[in-house]
Design goal:
- This protein is an alpha/beta fold.
- It has two domains: about 1-110 and about 305-365, P-loop containing nucleotide triphosphate hydrolases (Rossmann fold), CATH 3.40.50; about 125-275, Up-down Bundle (Glutathione S-transferase Yfyf (Class Pi), Chain A, domain 2), CATH 1.20.1050.90.
- Helix content is about 40%, strand content about 20%.
- The strands form three sheets. A six-stranded antiparallel beta sheet has the order 2-1-4-5-6-7, with helices on one face. The protein has a six-stranded mixed beta sheet with strand order 8-12-13-3-14-15, sandwiched between helices.
- The protein starts with a strand and ends with a strand.
Amino acid sequence: MKIDSVTLQNYRNAETVNFEPGEGVNVIYGANAQGKTNILEAMWLFTGCKSFRGARDNELIKFGSDTAKLSLAFTDSARSHYAELTLGAQKQAFLNGVALESQAEFIGRFYAVIFSPAHLALIQDGPVFRRRFLDTALCELRPRYAEYLARYRRTLVQRNALLKDLYLSAELYDVLDNYDDVLARCAAAVVYERIGYTRLLSEYCKEIYSGISEDTESFSVVYSRDAAGDRKPPEELYREEAERLKAARKNDVLFKTTTVGPHRDDLDIRLNGVSARSYGSQGQQRSCALVLKLGESEIIKRATGETPVMLLDDVMSELDEKRQDYVLNHIDNRQVFLTCCDPSQVLRLCKGRSFLVRNGTLKPEEP
């Protein structure tokens, strides 16, 4: 998958941007607050997802303007496409001249993977960020997973509410049994898919991290309940989940909440056999987060046959020169966009194109 051109009008701090990137690595550089990340954010919107910075639509429109218009020409393995997005009082999305019901209909049409400094939370912060990473990736690739996850969450809310009311009547324990059965079945489906995704992710990430560290460090990622051995079938996982709920019931009643289940699980990310969160340096932690996103890209490629565009925001900070060289020159066979502030980093780009951003305008540098 390749972006052929990007056009922005009244988007963030940019009045007009016309951008024709190269097929390989495209470095977008400039001082802080000039609009580098804005360009990546605009491209990301065509995945069908919202801003990776958590911004509302009205915050994406240039101050003093009523609407922002974005267009993206891109090519997949089959044909060329032209997508348009208008933000304003009336939000409109078009693909190849056909109006879409919502921006979300871009999902599955244009594939990209984003890395931003916020993704350091995958390594540095609590398990909620790692579970969200897994769930977001799986919901895009497995529609049935989204159904099981939604049902699990609904049942979890209902069970927790029931736990708070058990003191009202002993008969409510029969209702709790029913909730436990539904919860165990949904949990088994969620855990089965998470384990499968994590094992595939680990396989790709191990190889990628070996390249970025020049074989000096080993990387591993394991789902917290994935014991070594064969992947258990959903029916066996269901029996395990049911037993876990049964064993935890006393505590659940005491604390009035569900204390076990996939909503409490985690990813164990390790470097050289020890926790990357506890013992990794800033550069190592950033490398781990980047490698997880590159691994995600490989899984999308395997599942869809399309190689996602890589959008790497401020990825070079805290990486040593060897790791920066890997990012600039060794992420092969895909289109890459990365932002940085230091113009000296552009000089180490062996192949690709560089673009200077200043005050919301973008200028290609001469080869």
